[in-house]
Design a protein that fits this description.
Helix 1 (13-39) crosses helix 5 (105-126), helix 2 packs across helix 5 and helix 3 (60-67) packs across helix 4. This protein is mainly alpha-helical. 17% of the residues are buried. It has helices at 13-39, 43-55, 60-67, 71-83, 105-126, 131-158; strands spanning 58-59, 87-91, 99-103.
């Protein structure tokens, strides 16, 4: 009589990769929802404010480049942030199309609240890991990030 082995669910790169993507998407949604509920600021808007807080006032094109986003997408986000009083836009004296975006005091306060809300979610979700597990996860994520950068650069050089 033949003995049947139970099917195994091997950890293949595809399976682990899809699991990671699913988890990353869910984690981003959790952080985004908590930031919206607490500070009224989405993660994408928070990233714009963080760029301005870290680099100072920027032209919209520079801001788009810093965020790795299309200029039109950043323009729409900036317009919404301006309506909320979180950023100010000023025109260039010689080129009316060129706008400089700066963080307002209200923007700084709102950014701090949004960052705190995001931090709370991350601490809650990753706080159950032991220090060694966090270090291992950090090392693995760094390895995947390094591989991604190498693969991206190799693709750029080939194209």
């Amino acid at each position: 009589m033949e003995q049947h082995e139970a099917p195994t669910t091997a950890s293949t790169p595809e399976r682990v990769g899809l699991s990671f993507l699913t988890l990353a998407h869910s984690l981003r949604e959790q952080v985004d929802q908590h930031m919206m509920a607490t500070a009224g600021l989405s993660l994408s808007r928070t990233k714009v404010l963080q760029a301005l807080a870290g680099r100072g006032a920027l032209h919209q094109a520079e801001l788009a480049t810093a965020l790795g986003q299309a200029p039109r997408s950043v323009t729409q986000i900036v317009e919404g942030l301006e309506r909320l009083g979180l950023v100010s836009r000023t025109g260039h004296p010689e080129d009316r199309r060129r706008k400089t975006v700066a963080l307002t005091n209200t923007g700084r306060t709102t950014l701090a609240a949004a960052e705190e809300a995001g931090t709370r979610v991350l601490r809650q979700l990753f706080g159950s890991l032991a220090p060694r597990q966090l270090a291992d996860l950090d090392a693995l994520l760094t390895l995947v990030r390094t591989t991604l950068v190498r693969t991206t650069l190799a693709g750029d050089e080939a194209g």
